[in-house]
Design goal:
single chain, mainly beta, six-stranded antiparallel β-sheet, 38 strands, disordered N terminus
Length: 546
């Protein structure tokens, strides 16, 4: 970099020979007493000098006070190959002569920082040094572009260096390509898609960092388990390429999260990015925080599912990221159970139980009856057709997904019998009782019958009364009567329309058996007589053979 001096100065002199003291024609003037040089650049330090006209200059040279001795820089090994003097021929007037001399130092290093002085010697032993000299400070490159907001549409860029000096010429670059604009200031329109940088003319290698609007903001997620589950810690990060550093704003479902300013923090941006802290809304869950580029959930909840995006903004423009979807997985919430139709459940009807639960992913459902295990019914709905009172009781459902499971509360089904079903129930009970009674009577009769046969087979008779053995029963009594009577005495059967009753007196001993034909007569063990009346129905044939 070429740094030129402007006219401003300070005159001081030192007469090294006492014989020359008192002469006012000796002088050394340094237009600039402090020079800033960038490391690696070239610097020029100039002076003007004056000496008496009657003397002849033998040597003009520069030295420093580093070694505490007067050593010509051309003879100093630290400056070998990097020093040059440009001294013009003196011009003389009536009493004195004046001249100029410029020191040029190339490839500045940190060790070149020192105070530099000019010295002139004459043919009569006279010498003069300008004191104090020029202070040179060598620093690293610190070119930068200062952004000065001007309007909603454009900003002013200023090329600035820590070693700024008057008379410098600048070069501006757009996307690294030099422009034909050499002023210190440049207009930049908001959201332009190019970068701008600057340098001191002739020193492209000392170009300032480029400034540009944010580019390509994106959202990324950091979750320990990979899958985002309710209750875990999740952090979203927004990143973009921007200089000056961007400020970030977070959005959920197109609604901005509120912010409040904070102090700058570290970033990869150049210069350092500015961060902002979030101002958490009152309805935002505790444990959530936003810190500039990061949005953290500690822990994340199912209500945090949604579309997230961020905007990156600096003085040169604004850019928005693509939406990033968060799908929080969570176990089923407590299921709710409902019954259709509502109200009283009557026997014989149809009932449908429904189970629903909030879950992600969607839950699978299984139905259970309390103390009865699974009813082997899967799905949200469980239908019981033709329900009976025996199917009443407590029912519940289980909702399950890959994250966990949850049971519902109990649903009690109170099944009432309908009036139309009560007579049917009573009739069924009555028939059952009658059938049981008939079976009991037949069983007892067959048992007594077997006991009676067994007693006769053994040749004895029971001491107590018993029923006579069964005898054949004849229906056709009239036929037998007609055969035993004479033909003259027979009357046509057709004329015998009315039944006849006979009175029979029976006298028997204790051992006398009851004759056949008197079935159903109860025989007493004493000698009491009993009259037995028999009703005989007579059937008339159409013709009686003669």
């Amino acid at each position: 970099m070429n740094l030129r001096t402007a006219a401003r100065g300070f005159v001081a002199f030192l007469l090294s020979v006492p014989a020359l003291q008192g002469y006012n024609n000796w002088a050394v003037n340094y237009p600039v007493r402090n020079v800033c040089g960038l490391r690696g650049s070239t610097v020029e330090i100039s002076c003007t000098y004056k000496y008496p006209k009657h003397l002849k200059v033998e040597k003009r040279w520069w030295f420093t006070n580093i070694h505490n001795e007067l050593v010509d820089l051309r003879d100093d090994t630290d400056y070998t190959g990097r020093i040059d003097y440009h001294c013009g021929e003196p011009r003389c007037g009536s009493y004195s002569c004046t001249g100029t001399c410029t020191l040029i130092i190339k490839g500045l290093t940190q060790s070149d920082s020192a105070e530099y002085k000019f010295r002139v010697t004459t043919n009569k032993g006279g010498a003069y040094s300008g004191d104090p000299g020029v202070k040179l400070s060598v620093t690293d490159i610190q070119m930068e572009v200062v952004i000065r907001p001007s309007s909603l549409y454009r900003v002013q860029l200023e090329c600035h260096s820590m070693c700024d000096s008057t008379g410098l010429t600048y070069t501006w670059y757009r996307n690294g390509i030099p422009q034909q604009y050499q002023r210190r200031f440049l207009w930049f329109y908001i959201n332009s898609d190019y970068s701008a940088s600057c340098a001191v003319q002739g020193s492209k290698h000392l170009t300032s960092p480029s400034v540009y609007a944010p580019k390509n903001p994106s959202v990324s997620v950091r979750s320990p388990s990979g899958v985002i589950k309710e209750g875990s810690s999740v952090t979203l990060s927004c990143s973009s390429d921007a200089n000056a550093a961007a400020d970030y704003t977070w959005f959920k479902d197109n609604q901005p999260l509120l912010w409040e300013p904070s102090q700058p923090s570290s970033s990869e941006a150049n210069p350092v990015a500015k961060y902002t802290w979030s101002k958490v809304p009152t309805d935002h869950p505790l444990g959530h925080s936003v810190q500039g580029q990061q949005l953290s959930f500690h822990p994340i909840q199912s209500s945090d599912s949604g579309q997230y995006l961020c905007t990156a903004e600096n003085d040169l423009g604004t850019e928005t990221s693509y939406p990033f979807s968060i799908d929080v997985k969570y176990a089923p919430k407590t299921p709710s159970v409902s019954v259709r139709p509502p109200g009283e459940i009557k026997e014989g009807g149809s009932v449908t139980l429904s189970c629903s639960s909030d879950a992600n992913p969607a839950a699978d459902y299984t139905w259970f009856r309390e103390h009865g295990g699974s009813v082997e019914e899967l799905g949200k709905n469980y239908t019981i057709s033709n329900i009976t009172t025996e199917l009443g009781g407590n029912y519940y459902c289980e909702a399950r997904n890959a994250v966990g499971l949850q049971n519902s509360t109990l649903m009690f089904l109170n099944v009432t019998a309908t009036p139309s079903s009560m007579p049917t129930t009573v009739a069924a009970g009555t028939v059952a009782v009658l059938l049981a009674t008939m079976l009991l009577v037949i069983f007892l009769w067959m048992r007594r019958k077997r006991a009676s046969r067994k007693a006769r087979g053994q040749g004895g008779r029971p001491d107590t009364r018993e029923e006579s053995p069964p005898c054949p029963v004849y229906d056709n009594v009239s036929a037998l009567t007609n055969r035993s009577a004479s033909a003259a005495q027979r009357e046509p059967i057709e004329e015998q329309d009315d039944p006849h009753y006979a009175s029979i007196h029976i006298s028997r001993s204790k051992n006398q058996e009851v004759p056949c034909g008197f079935a159903g007569v109860l025989v007493e063990s004493d000698h009491t007589e009993q009259v037995l009346y028999s009703a005989i129905n007579l059937k008339r044939p159409k013709a009686v053979p003669e």
